[in-house]
Design brief:
With 308 residues, the protein is of the alpha/beta class. The chain has a single domain, classed as Metallo-dependent phosphatases (Purple Acid Phosphatase, chain A, domain 2), CATH 3.60.21.10. 28% of the residues lie in helices and 17% in strands. It contains eleven helices and ten strands. The longest helix is centred in the N-terminal third of the chain and has 14 residues. The model has no long low-confidence stretch (mean pLDDT 94). This is Tyrosine-protein phosphatase RLPH2.
Length: 308
């Protein structure tokens, strides 16, 4: 007797790590994903970019153009563009972050870290008077005791890729409106209710949470998600976008419902259970950009030599 409700094939989900201005790596990785995933599956895949598209590498405008072009080229795919800490700071400098929801001014975000202003050489040029802290840090001149490409964000290559020197207010005019809109529209977190992952027990259906750095382990998850969805710019430093040790583990409360937590940010490739950290490149020129494909857990890199 024919099964009237045959099992549906799990949707393919591609989680792509930090790109950091390397257009050739992105193009090669995309080509490799297209080569190793069944065409019908790839054409309808959920593609999650984990943030940090700019800085360190030389071609930020080309990377943004590539990302912006995907929905037209692959109309059946779903594309999720997460905000990384680098895009947060980029958007802060350009003035495209949403205003604080309590009516306060961005200069209120300076207070918590003002003891670092001189050491980090915060930006004091045109428009700084009411700029979010991270915008001022991004365009600053941080050179003491650490090797930086122009600031604590290694932002000089991005300024230069738009044809202006690091720290120049001219960047605000040089970045096209299409790129500003892309940065303004980035989501800080993404949730999916039914994502399959392959493990030793077979195929398992899970909830998925994608966020650039991770979720803080000692804060209520629901409150974190609410804050991230609201894009709360009153916060000086958004830990789920920029934290390290405090966002590495999956919060204990998520163990009640199997939940994949996928991030980039950490400069390493690490898979442990349902915690996926996909940032093998770390923005370094000689490192590959990596992606993980679900449910198969196949790892794909820009450096793979695949035969179509």
């Amino acid at each position: 007797m024919e099964d009237k409700n045959p099992p549906t094939k799990p949707r393919v989900v591609c989680c792509i790590g930090d790109i950091h201005g390397y257009i050739t790596k992105l193009q090669n990785l995309w080509s490799n994903l297209e080569s190793c995933i069944d065409p019908s599956d790839f054409s309808t895949a959920l593609i999650i970019f984990l943030g940090d598209y700019c800085d360190r590498g030389p071609d930020t405008p080309k990377v943004l153009n590539f990302l912006i072009s995907l929905p037209l080229k692959y109309p059946k795919q779903t594309h999720v563009y997460l905000c990384g800490n680098h895009e947060f700071a980029f958007g802060a400098f350009l003035g495209v972050l949403p205003s604080p929801n309590d009516g306060s001014e961005f200069k209120e975000t300076w207070k918590e870290y003002e003891m670092n202003e001189e050491r980090e050489g915060w930006y004091k040029g045109e428009g700084f008077e009411n700029m979010h802290l991270q915008g001022r840090r991004r365009a600053g001149n941080h050179t003491k005791g650490i090797e930086c490409k122009g600031s604590i964000y290694d932002a000089a290559p991005t300024f230069e890729s738009y044809g202006v020197p690091h720290g120049s207010a001219d960047l605000m005019k040089a970045v096209p409106d299409e790129h500003k809109k892309f940065l303004a529209d980035l989501v800080w977190i993404h949730e999916e209710d039914d994502v399959c992952i392959k493990n030793e027990e077979g195929i398992k259906s899970c909830k998925l949470i994608a966020v650039h750095a991770g979720l803080e382990k000692n804060k209520v998850v629901e409150e974190q998600i609410k804050t991230l969805k609201a894009k709360d710019t009153r916060i000086s430093k958004v830990e789920p976008l920029s934290g390290r040790k405090n966002v590495w583990e999956i919060p204990q409360e998520l163990s009640k419902t199997p939940t994949i937590v996928v991030s980039g940010h950490h400069g390493k490739f690490h898979i442990e259970g349902l915690r996926l950290v996909i940032d093998e490149g770390g923005g370094l020129e000689d490192n590959p950009v990596a992606a993980v494909v679900l449910p198969s857990m196949k790892v794909v890199r820009d450096t793979d030599r695949l035969v179509k």
